[in-house]
Write the structure tokens for this entry.
Amino acid sequence: MWRLVFACLSLLAAGPSEAQDLIRLARIADIPDQYVGGEMLRAVYAKLNIRLEFEDVPGKRALALSSAGAVDGEIQRIGTLSRDYPTLIQVTPAINYIEPAVFTTKLRFDVAGWDSIRDYSIGIVRGVGSSEAGTRGMARVTATTSLDNMVRMLDADRFDVMVTDLFSGLAAVRKLNLQARIYPLAPPLERIHIYHYLHERHRDLVPKVGKVIAQMEASGELAALREALVKQVLGTQ
């Protein structure tokens, strides 16, 4: 559904009829915030007359493909990615942000950072860097294969809480019609700025993309686009 929401945006982004350059980016499959980030980037690249395509794969597979140069980069990842994957170059400023949040079926408590969930059994999605970093060293963490799978496992009481981006979690719970059972706790664990990454062979493109992101951020266009996409995915518009 998410890929169809902004079909009109894709047509506009195609621009003039002359041939365009093409960039292929890894996209973590079935993660709503990756869809939103991808559509935001589609608008960014359209201003450079560059067309985007996405390769939908699990999180770890995405990093294997992008870091090896099998695709041209990543839609959005946490800011420390280049430390572990030096072939991927960060584009600044940030393209988006995520708010990791705690979802549960029965618990009630005020979230006070990552340490406040340390004593619970926790579900995360394998390959999502923010969740892996936030729960590192915790004793009872289950890494699931996908967001939908994690939501179903929480519904089946396989762990006490799950952690995912607030927006993505709300979208997945709604998609599986589990709103009456699964709910987020407040506040989110933190807000994390996330960045677009390109493979080092596109080093010359990095400042050009960064300049467009900065211009769209300054004008408010980027924030308005994100808000519209989030509302569309959540069905509130």
